């Protein structure tokens, strides 16, 4: 399959290309907005849902796509900040919480535990 054929089947790439014509300089930048069909066509591993409803009732959900899937990204479930996954995990192992908001994730409540050892019963 040629690279152009992959772009023809990728609905998000089509939306991105359509919006590049309307983008001007940095001051005129508008995020790419897509419909439900395009969202359904994307891989869920590359999508992050930023739900900040716990900060205020008028805060809506935002959806982000990792444009460089080779770079693993993690998002804190509390502050919704993005981190490079390795850096987030090292900081979490060292301090036992999110490096930004100090939130302790439900499944990572134990500190100073590496990898899947937390799941082992001894």
Q: Could you describe the 3D structure shown?
A:
The protein is α+β, with helices and mostly antiparallel strands and 122 residues long. The protein has a domain at 1-33. It is 28% helix and 11% strand. It has helices at 3-9, 11-20, 36-41, 85-95, and strands at residues 47-50, 62-65, 73-75, 82-84. The strands form two sheets. The chain has a two-stranded antiparallel ribbon with strand order 1-2. A hairpin with a 6-residue loop joins strand 3 (73-75) and strand 4 (82-84).
Summary of the model, kept short:
The protein is of the alpha+beta class. The chain is globular, with a radius of gyration of 18 Å.
Structural class: alpha+beta
Q: Could you tell me the number of beta strands?
A: 4
Strand content: 5-15%
Label the overall shape.
globular
Helix-strand pattern: HHHEEEEH
Rg: 18 Å
Q: Sheet bearing the most strands, described?
A: 2 strands, antiparallel
Number of helical runs? 4
Uncertain regions spanning at least 5 consecutive residues: 1-5, 109-122
Distance between the termini: 51 Å
